[in-house]
Amino acid sequence: MNTTYFGEMLATITERGRALLDLARARRGEPQAHSENLADLCEELLSGRGEASGAALAGDILAKYADMTTGPRIAFFEALMSRFGPDGAKLDAAIAAWQKGPSDATAARVHVAAEPRRQELLRRLNLAPGGTGALVRMREQLIDAIDLRNDLKAVDADFVHLFSSWFNRGFLVLRRIDWSTPAMILEKIIRYEAVHRIRSWDDLRRRIDPADRRCYAFFHPALVDEPLIFVEVALTREIPDAVAPILSVQRDALPSDKVSTAVFYSISNCQRGLAGVSFGSFLIKQVVQEICRENPKLQVFVTLSPVPDFAQWLERERKTENSAALSEEDRAALAGLDRQGWWQLAEAREPLKEPLLLAAAWYFLRARNRRGHPADAVARFHLGNGARLERLNWLADTSERGIAQSHGLMVNYLYDLDDIEKNHEAYADGRAVVASNAVKRLVRKAATEVVPVAG
Prior knowledge:
The relative contact order is 0.07. The chain is an alpha+beta fold. The protein is globular and about 75 Å long. The chain has 20 helices and eight strands. It has a five-stranded mixed beta sheet with strand order 1-2-3-4-5, sandwiched between helices. Strands 6-8-7 form a three-stranded antiparallel beta sheet.
């Protein structure tokens, strides 16, 4: 059964459910528009009606929500917070039963009673045609609301909890994106690209059509034409140290017998409403399997990754009087970063190379966020997947964004298939940053310059 047929069948059931819903209301002497209050409609949905009429009511609720402006949306989220939490009386009774007679059965009662009612509400809303997509969009707006109302985080946690199950890896489908992919999806690939902007249809074709280029995306059956995350791959002779040759307009495609390295140079999450639901690790591992089936000669799997927060971190360190990352000499040299167009002038950029790479090595191996994790978000992702920080690449991205975010720095993370599990465990157990000797030598040199070693 294809998804189009299933969607049409669900819509038919929902329409019949709406007729049943209207008939039931008429018998009770209620108007068809039973309530303009969305929270009251949600209470009605939770009151325990049949699936067909419930799907119809869920569709009505989502349609009314979609017409709301920002203020009423926040009021609705407030209602989800205040009116649809755990049932206090049921929870008290379940806790009392467990305290009186601890057992698996009474523990299960506590577990069920402790679940916020809004989780069941979200499950029932998901039964409406297009319900999954509507809830993903709803969560996008909830994320925006949290910027103003931090107390709504409990509601957001329920979305993440349910999405983590609904978008479980077992439900995701990997599809290759090529020039034969429907234009509707290709347009979304252009729009969602978050690392290296796709400037035109010709630019897109250069990334997905040649024999030495690949693009893969995860899809979910409930969001048929909506990619969740996609990765762009270049097949090369060696590990690249700059992105320009990969994106070059004028280049010759490599034949399959000349490539030895698969380079993941862009990974883009497409659905902001699914933030916090991780797909990337599964994507990379499955893409490696797919590419190896096509080309068994591939031996090296690396990224060419941006460093989006490095420039901000370095700016803070330059302003810190007793920075552990920068010596006074390096701080003075890095003042050259303030010069307009420094990367385009040999006399300006060469004095910056060594101090910037030393600072970058410190950033990756020593800098931590408040939770004690590596400061760089991209590093956390790849290290958590079992990769090794392989190389720091000077002026690898001289685009306007690359200079602004990282002073042109990019890095390679190496996925050594023999060491992935070991590296993952090292990161999971102690947040260890597994790095090549070349990177570790840089940070040792930086530490020596900042804090002289006695004797």
